[in-house]
Queue: 3 jobs
Job 1
Amino acid sequence: MAATTTGRPLGPEGSLLPSGHLRRRLRTEAVIRAALFLAALVSVATTGAIAVSLLRPTIEFFSEIPVGEFFSGTTWAPLFVPAQFGVWPLITGTFLVMAIAVLVAVPCGLGAAFYLSEYARPRVRAVVKPVLEVLAGIPTVVFGFFALYFVNPQIVQKFWPFGNVGTFSGLAAGLVVGIMILPTMASLAEDAMSAVPGSLRDGALALGATRREVCTKVIFPAALSGIVAASVLAFSRAIGETTIVLLASGSNPQFTLNPGQGVQTMSSFIGFAGIGDQPTGSTGYKTIFAVGTVLFVITFVLNILSVRIVRRFRQAYE
Amino acid sequence: MTATTGGTPLTTERRRLVQSLASTVSVGRRLRDRVFFGLLILSLLIALVTLFALLIDTFLTGQTRLNSDLVQNMPSGRPARAGIQSAIFGSLWVVGLAGAVSLPLGVATAVYLEDFAPKGRWYISLIELNVQNLAGVPSVVFGILGLAFIARGPFSWGFTVGTGAMVLTILVLPTVVVASREAIRAVPPSLRDGALALGATRWQTIWRQVLPSAVPGIATGSILSVSRALGESAPLLLLGALTFVTFNPDGLDSSFTVLPLLIFKYASDAKAEFHVVAAAAIIVLLIMLLTMNTAAILIRNRYQNRRS
């Protein structure tokens, strides 16, 4: 046989079984495959660890604080003596900052996406897109500094028509969180719009539609699921933002929907309580986890929703 | 007529034709088109103007303290002497370690999901769903995980460089996986098929053909995700990094602070002089980020030029 020409022995004459060399190779292959699988499992383990580390202190927390008190009280002061655990100020605070941020990010993000996808010349796109990427890459602490020492004193305090605004305001925090999310919103929405087949555009234009009508009556409905997914992600990021809110909106939980006041959100409470280095096992320590669980569940549901919507949207064009 | 192409100037006759066509669009519709276009430009301008206002305001505030003292001095309670040296070293330690661990782990996950994963199994969908979901979990939740699982609890590493690095690793891992998967997917199938047809095993194909040609894409994506770790502050708030650390870290079990958190501390101080130091530190942080992003863009451009 020609076995000797390759320099290594083959299996028994005429056998189709793998040679010793190949068998060793395949064994290595199986080991590598197993190692790669283990690496892939790290992400599952992380989610599991998050769930475990959140759940136990949360259960302990609710065995100490009745759920009724948690969801009915309107004073949130878990780290004071006497401690009060009415979560409503955190809920209104989170809603306030989220609503302002989404009102900035979603319409402006959509506008920027329409412009980039339907109007901008290639040369303009080549300049604008990297600039938006720079905006997306700015650390949140920098945005927080900007919100606290520029947006609040220079814009909010001067132009807010209803009463005086102090050092902190939910409005300044919400506006800047919105600007932070805007580039992501714009880029995801633009991806969805670019995926709309050109024939739809040409058809509408040929039938006499103006460019605006193409945008609002053709591109928007066709890209809707991608746009909705991007908006859901915007909600999720607005709820989860910590540092900007902590810096610009302060750490005073108030039961209010007035944007001119400083408020505390669920995320900024976690950051605030974390700074204080609560002793392990204290009720204050467990509060971090209880609020964290609520936050994790909300963002988890939003993320799954967004992934689902994107999946449906992909199927539509394949 | 045959000679008219898009580039020729309009004759009066053609211009009249275009105008008569345009006049079929009513004044109201044309006006609404103008307003719509104006709104699009406005929304883009809001983003761009804010970016420039942020950069200019920070630079003007911080420039007086932007000198060698800033990077040479340690953090201090006295504004005139306050510096950021230990925070720069802390950031380099934590982010460097996070990059060094998350890169191989992320690429391994990406290779598994792209080339080895059996199609349509439930546990593969589980892994994919997990990666997608983790990418969207608020970063402060990773801080809770780090507090309960790594700083205390099972690992009990305390508030150390090791804990910070591990939390940031977990934080950037999903984005490294997503970026690496895209880079691996972009490798032409002919390369893979060729190697396999010549008798290479799956791993030989990946190690010698797929990964080398995916390196630029992986590098770009990974640098961008690691630069996110450099600016991250929320999870580290929970890990005791918000303190004046007046020495550079010297190992995994050393306590530490990072640049974003020191900026946070200076910014939330009552004394206005500290806000100037914070602004100067922000400029240093932005320069570090810009360097990393420029590296990523340079790699991407070189790669694109070679391909075309």
Job 2
Amino acid sequence: MATTEKLVGQAVLRKEDPEFLTGSARYTDDLSVPGMLWMGVVRSPYAHARIKSVDVSEATSMDGVVAAFSGADFDWAGPLLMAWPVTEGLHNPLHYPLVTDKARYQGDGVGVVVATSRAIAEDAVEVVKVDYEPLPAVVNMHEALSDDSAFVHDEFGTNESYTWANVQGDVDTVFADAPVVVKEHYKVHRLIANAMEPRSILVQPNPASEQYTMWSSTQIPHILRTAMAIATGIPESKLRIVAPRVGGGFGSKLQVYPEEALALELARRLRAPIKWTESRSEGYLATHHGRDQVQDVEIAAQDDGKILGYRVKIHANMGAYLMVIAPGTPVLGGFLFCGCYEGLAYKTEIVGVFTNTTPVDAYRGAGRPEATQAIERAIDALARRVGKDVVEIRRMNFMPPFTQATQSIGGLMIDSGDYPATLDRALELFDYEQFRKEQQARRDSGDSKQLGVGFSTYLENCGWGPSRVIGGILKYAGGGWEAATVRCHPTGKVVAVIGNTPHGQGNETTFAQVVADDLGVPLEDVEVLFGDTDVAPSGWDTYGSRSAAVGMPALHRATSRIVEKARKIAAHELEVADSDLKYENGTFSVRGAPSVTRTIPQIAFSAWRGHDLPEGVEPGLEESAFFDPENLVFPFGAHICTVEVDTETGEVDVTKYVAVDDVGPVVNPMIVEGQVVGGVAQGIGEALFEEAVYDENGQLLSSSMTNYAVPSATEIPSFVTGNHVTPSTTNDMGIKGVGETGTIASPPAVLNAVVDALSHLGVTEIPRPATPENVWRTIQRAGKGGSA
Amino acid sequence: MTQISVTVNGVRHEADVEPRTLLVYFLREHLGLTGTNVGCDTSSCGSCTVHLDGESVLSCTLLAAQADDREVTTIEAMAEPDGTLSPLQDAFRRHHGLQCGYCTPGMIMAASSYLMENPTPTEEEVRESLEGNLCRCTGYQNIVESILDAAGQLSGAKA
């Protein structure tokens, strides 16, 4: 039966939930196959050390150990894929799954063992003897670029990987003439994604046909297939990559990992299935980290706070190697250091730096949280300088509202925007004046607990992405289109196949909502398939908030083709002209005779039988589409955070959080709110608690979940959310992305609130994360009249 | 090898296990009950929470041998045999209390045990009860609402 009520826009409950709620979801580590062997990776305990010898003989003599190898035992067809050479002269070290010359970070793989059980593999790793000659470790970027630094990659004679720049207008003149220049220095600390599911891999070879199936906890089965073909030489046509249920990613599974290539190569060599699952602590070393920038930010302005220009220099830590999109990660923010504000000139220069640390790559927001925290904190600094309120300074600098694509001073062609509107909406949900009164009362009373409020009126770019643009000026090696197939079965059931691979985003529900509406079938009649390169052979996977913005339009295009073809068949059956048919909610009806109809399921049956199709129409009702957007999409919004800071202990309590986001038309408000709230919670963790810390020898001090502070339920507040809709002009559904907005917007809102709470004590800056220790020290320094 | 006899989800299992076998791997690898997940190696995340004689425990910090002659309940036994979700599971679904689902079995097991202890908790009490269960997707808000709803403690129209 055709349904009439539209599902798009409704808070439809998730189709996928019962599986997760009953424990029947299958993640990679839940899978096993007969004859499966376990892989263990021997990792360098040193951040930087020459490998003099690797002796696996004791390991191979152990009961249950099948084989053990050093890096020298492999001859790879190619390196691990690095897909984003952002500049012509970029230094990109060839990166293979195991090193043979020297280890370049604590956790770098130097050998591998294969055993009959997980436990034996762990034991065998311990007895592989590696003779290391420790070398001086290059840990921080400042030292890395100094003249007397050791080199992470000797062949380059420098630790600089690249310098990328985006210059718009005459920056130096604008700064030379500006009456006010604010200079800020920020350290955006290093983070660990902590997807709750550790990475896991299972490779099943078919030695006779030389076909291989790899299950991996990955966000990118399609990219991984190509990358595995490059690394191992196994033809892509013989590789099937499956991302089964994936327990969170946040960018950390947007990667081509050494263990994936190793497991595949070992399955080929040993002609046996190979399994590997990282322990959490192993993952802290071996799964890429995120953020880690040092930012020098300058804003030029008039005396009244009207911004004239932006000049930003970024040092971005790449870690020991360039991982799949690592050089481009900071570049994703390279157009956004002006946020949603106007100006006359703009310059961002990004220097990628090698260090002897775990490689750094995308973490939820990837480059955009870094840029957003810079501009949103710096504009507060400008407000302090010129004596303006933080709301007023934002309003006077916003780009005015626009509904057609408009150029920003950062060089982006923005799809649509109404920045004052989201700020207005947020202020409807938060009584700013009342808060300022309460804040003043606390200050006046000299209470040890002080109140602060922080704003973040962010803009971001996502919906990765237009292939011509990302492959053009951005120099990305891959594409950014998405592929969909919609298949109508003769019984009226529908299968939608999509190249995006969710890991918590609820695509099975939202994509089914779109298909059900387009074809007029019930939600339960639509199955959404993904995450298996044999089922969904084409696609560019999931990252950069692209599933709804790029995948859904692809799906919508495929259903439109279904309708076009069905119209021909319906017209033939009803003996009318195509143009005499009206299509609504899955039903074709004859104009003037509304009771004469055909539904999509009826046509699907006709097309399947093929008994009486119009001339030139092929049987079957199945269509595919590729969608390549013309532009990125640009969500924006206004976030307001209030905090209570204990000035005696430095403890920060988030007391209220208001998030108003414009992500275009909302397909499922429940899921969108879930993305926003989850993202903001991660951003609060970033602002207040989490930090990956190395000592001066390159040893990771935050080496397990016991000393890396993933926030718990008591540390995260309840949220107030609101939305605003400005349709994107990039796709015909008007959709923008939502997966990363919360993490992009929230850290500066929180940090600005902490500074605001302490501003009457002379505090103008707070180190990230604003842990009790950092806050307390800042208060002490300010009290002594030092620069805070 | 150690011989153990453990009742899991109402079924008695006799098995020989290596003495070092953790309860979670006994459940996952010997019995094929893969609904109980492993999220860390430091007893920090709570993903592996199961019930031992009715109380929630971390199955990654117990040896299988410690469950000898005792009763274990896992996520696989929480719904009705016909698949009907328990009120708590259903509340998680209605409140979007899960995204990637990896922490969810541990959350359900921890919360169901907590609600037996305290059937009418406040929001603050629910948050405190979840301190040992980490979720990276949801920001906890909807998990807390799910649990309050299941307890009949959700105020206003949201229930």
Job 3
Amino acid sequence: MDLRHSGIKIKIGLEIHAALLTSSKLFCRCSTRWQGREPNTLTCPVCLGMPGSKPVLNEKAVEYAIRIALALNCKIARECFFSRKSYFYPDMAKNFQITQYEIPIASNGYVELDGKKIRIKRVHLEEDPARLVHVGPSVAEAKYVLIDYNRSGVPLCEIVTEPDLTSPREAREFLQRLANTLEYLDVYDSSLEGSMRVDANISIQKGSMASERVEIKNISGFKELEEALTFEAIRQANALERGEKIPRETRGYDSNARVTYSLRGKELEEEYGYIFEPDLPKLRIEKSFVERIKRSLPELPHQKMERLSKFINKELAKSIVSDKDLALAYERVIKHVDKKLAAVWLGNVLKKILNYNNLRFKDVCITHEQLVRFLKALEKGEITKHAGEQILRELIRDSSAIEKIVEMKRISDENLIKNVAVKVLEANPKAVLDYKSGKREAFEFLIGCVMRETKGRADPKKAREVLKRMLD
Amino acid sequence: MRADARAYLERAKNGEIDFAEFARKFYEKAKKLNERYGFFITLNDFERFASVKFEEPLFGLPVSIKDNICTKDMRTTAGSNILRDYVPPFDATCVEKIKEANASIIGKTAMDEFGFGSFTTNCAFVTPKNPWDESRTCGGSSGGAAGFVAAMDMPTVALAESTGGSISCPASFCGVVGLTPTYGLVSRWGLIDYACSLDKIGCIGKSVYDVALVLSIIACHDERDSTSLNVRQRDYTKHLDEAPRKIKAAIPKEYTENLNPKVERAFWDAVDKLEREGFSCRKVSLPHTKYALASYYIIACSEASTNLAKFCGIRYGLELEFSEENFERYFSRVRSEGFGEEAKRRIILGTFARMAGYRNKYYLKAMRIRTLIINEFKRVMKNFDCILSPTMPILPPRFEEIEKLSPLEAYRCDVLTTPVNLAGLPHLSLPCGFATEHGSKLPVGMHVICDHLEEEKLLKISRSIEKILGWEYGPEA
């Protein structure tokens, strides 16, 4: 089923949990960098929920949440407080989570996505539970579960949208934009394991039929979000088609099978019994504190894109801006080389190589100086486009590959090219015959051979001229 | 015989005490008293008890610690089976402080499980008996703490804790002095929570001097407790005997209704004496008092039900064999076995009061009433130096009477102590007279309440009351 032309109206709202990049946890001094660490080594009485321990709020996390809230055009609360959300689960150190309920740190914001406003309902702070490691072939078949409290107490910023998203694709774009924005704010790193988890609410309407709101829990990844929502929209549409009712329920998403499955119905909706967190005083947020944060906000992705789009193609700008460090590199190099040339090479060629290798610019060790040298070589025509691509492919793994600019210097000397061409023609008599009998593809084949023999260094224009002369 | 800490410290400074001898004698007596009365859940080893430095400021003064206050490497049960063998990895701040002050730790005193009770009959391990009459309760929940201070004829003080009256009640029933400071004055780091917005660590001693001395050591700002107040540490004993001149005391009429007639008589007799010595006492009305008890139990149980959720047999405390079962069943088995009846009752009450649909009617309403009660106290405090009332409306009941009480009747005994605990005002209970019942001479306690952070004033007023009423301390041995 194609959702775009099915006459289905979709309403999607997201609840995003992003792990904040503070150096210590939300209520204690333990480190937040649990990824790759020996389990249960980053713990203390507070994040283990030991009797007699008490939380102390990390001010940096408050600052980060305010950065996010300001970037999402939210209203910052003058005063807010924390609450206890109670439920029993083995990943909960205290069997309650310290979160915000009645008054969040910020509310009523929006994000403009291709000219459309997606409203942000609230932004609040809460603590991450511990990490469960299921021992066994799968979660369902696990024989037992191990608990790693290293993650317990990591600050999460929860961002809740109004149900303003109207397609799974749009939800994905929104999430990408949000993640990108958080990275620009230096409060979040999408490459860290488990750094973003999403709950999605979706309901559909078809003619006079409508589904109840269904919540899909714990989706991680942009692609997974789109897939889960697409599956769910189609599932609901088909059920409505059959005259079935879609009850309000909570579902999970199995990213291997790419299906959602029922977790619990409305009658089993969670009962959290919120109370005010009595171990933490009210949090007063001074205006001057907010003003100081406001002044320190960096240029955000959409602003940067708008600015770059004034002199480069919009698609290229989008591509460059989507990787914060790549964008930073771009802005540095265009002080020395042509903006458009740099845009094509960073936003298109390099970005493709990075994507193909599942890397981001900050993962590779290319310095800005190397990039300038590289782009200058292209600008001056010292290396060919072909050689440039090759060098770039090597450069992402080995920074000494930059020296190949010299090795792979463009060959413009017609005699040199001619020598290569002679060899190529001798080795491919059939192609020569084909060409003479009028097959144009044979010429392209022979040019390819010349380029390959020169490792792409031959000036393509000159090579064509030389070859043509020799054949005719 | 009066054996408060003042005389001990003076003699210690003058080099008149052989501490090894003192420690041995003290420990032996404590052991004997404990065998007879059951004041302790855990008595310290003699070696550890006596290994203290005989130096300023406390010179090895023996201190007992209520068993919901964490002591490093020393079992801390909070009176509950679920923490039967729990040994904390850290000291509570107040324990750190008294250790630094060279106090010796005699042991961990008996208490109602997690503080849930007024008679220390809800302790999983022992029920302390009142030294004035062994068939009666010491009060609760700090029953062991008050009982031991009363029974011991050598100098000793106790670290205790009050949520809704757990210091005042046993102090009153045992005829000793109990101080509950302003909420936030003493750090709660290391206190096993009952209801965090109400829990206050305080102390029990044989005299007003004793509690002033302990407060001077434990009252300080602590960044590990976010509700700890940023108040400079000071010596509350220094100006203790400088009595404020004309003391204006308010006596709320709501606090003198429905009293046991013997308690009533003892209280008014004491007030007469105070007035003769220049106190000006006037009746006032605190009309919201009637809602205090219900609000207290709703808030305390709501918070307690979340605080007790952490005890589920995973990281500490009672653990059971795992069998093929999901975590919910395992948690339920551990909690069914580990918690006593009163703990279960309060968990259920508290969970109910904060559930969607009831939350507004109970929990949030109780929180609003709490604000009204605080404001009401503040209004009275504008015109008076202190509030006086009986501490408990009854004499210490006999165990056979307690058994017959319904939970609600038991809760009602806290009617005079809950309002001030809800408001977080500093208060002190001291003996003001005696009553005789069934041939037993029993102490009656008076409550003195002052405004937030007016501990110095509270202690001075209490000291002048102590001087005027002039009671000898401790039951006849």
